[in-house]
């Protein structure tokens, strides 16, 4: 291994292999090289959320500068990466979040990452949305991580022929699609799971290598910041698990081996 790269036991063939190891013996074809000139936390958190965001923006619609997308759970790890990648491409983001006591600080944080519009789920259902679409085009792509009413309302604002991709279901409620959206707006509905995407490309490393290279380059250029995180010694894993399940915390819990 050259001195300017670090190996990452990324789960391209078998997900989560090596998760609890400090050392391992692998076939070269099972590994992807990660540049050593990006932060360790960035490298450690690269293989799931950033890859998910990258694929969501790359695989479903041909997006060009000036186009817009809409997403819920915008303060999630995936949502924050979507904001940053989209900003680097000149794509407008409409970001939906749940109302909360520290809403203004959250809105500011997302704007600092490059978000164009940040709205609550309540606003999503109100006439104010008409004013918003005077400032930007209707989105060609909707990214759904919530389900339930949030998804139905977000779908209403999708452009004709647009695509909604569901990659999570935080509300634990079904996705309800009005028949009119399918008939009169010709929307497309898709699902995405990054683990399956990797499994399907177990023998084709070119797409994976390009994705990691592109994401690493964004980190290197300051276009993609490492996620807010708390580092824990391994013996404090119970505290890390507790914080990982705390609502509204929006921080990665990283175990230091």
Automatic annotation (TrEMBL):
Give UniProt keywords alphabetically: Mitochondrion, NADP, Oxidoreductase, Transit peptide
InterPro entries from the UniProt entry: ADH-like_C, Mito_Enoyl-ACP_Reductase, NAD(P)-bd_dom_sf
Q: Name one GO cellular component term.
A: mitochondrion
* Localization of this protein: Mitochondrion
**Which CDD domains would you find in this protein's record?**
ETR
Return the Gene3D superfamilies for the record: Medium-chain alcohol dehydrogenases, catalytic domain, NAD(P)-binding Rossmann-like Domain
The answer to whether the entry has keyword Oxidoreductase is yes
Which GO BP terms, alphabetically? fatty acid metabolic process
From what superkingdom does this record's organism come? Eukaryota
One GO molecular-function entry: oxidoreductase activity
All copies of the Alcohol dehydrogenase-like C-terminal domain together span 78-201
The family annotation for this protein states:
Belongs to the zinc-containing alcohol dehydrogenase family. Quinone oxidoreductase subfamily.
Q: What is this protein called?
A: Trans-2-enoyl- reductase, mitochondrial
Q: Which organism is it from?
A: Pelobates cultripes
């Amino acid at each position: 291994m050259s001195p300017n790269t670090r190996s990452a036991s990324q789960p391209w063939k078998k997900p989560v292999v090596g998760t609890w190891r400090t050392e391992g013996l692998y076939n070269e074809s099972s590994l992807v090289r990660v540049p050593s000139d990006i932060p360790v936390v960035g490298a450690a958190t690269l293989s799931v959320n950033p890859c998910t965001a990258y694929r969501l923006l790359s695989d479903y619609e041909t997006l060009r500068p000036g186009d817009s997308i809409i997403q819920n759970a915008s303060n999630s790890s995936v949502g924050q990466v979507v904001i940053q990648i989209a900003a680097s491409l000149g794509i407008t983001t409409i970001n939906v979040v749940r109302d909360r006591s520290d809403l203004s600080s959250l809105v500011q944080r997302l704007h600092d990452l490059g978000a164009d519009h940040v709205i609550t789920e309540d606003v999503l259902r109100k006439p104010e949305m008409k004013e918003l679409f005077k400032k930007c085009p209707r989105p060609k792509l909707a990214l759904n991580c919530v389900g339930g009413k949030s998804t139905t309302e977000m779908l209403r604002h999708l452009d004709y022929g647009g695509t909604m991709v569901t990659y999570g279901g935080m509300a634990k409620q079904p996705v309800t699609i009005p028949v009119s959206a399918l008939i009169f707006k010709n929307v497309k509905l898709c699902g995405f799971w990054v683990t399956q995407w990797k499994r399907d490309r177990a023998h084709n490393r070119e797409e994976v290598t390009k994705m990691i290279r592109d994401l690493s380059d964004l980190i290197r250029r300051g276009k993609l910041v490492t996620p807010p995180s708390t580092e824990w010694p391994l013996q404090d894993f119970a505290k890390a698990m507790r914080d990982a399940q705390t609502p509204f915390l929006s921080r990665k819990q990283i175990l230091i081996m």
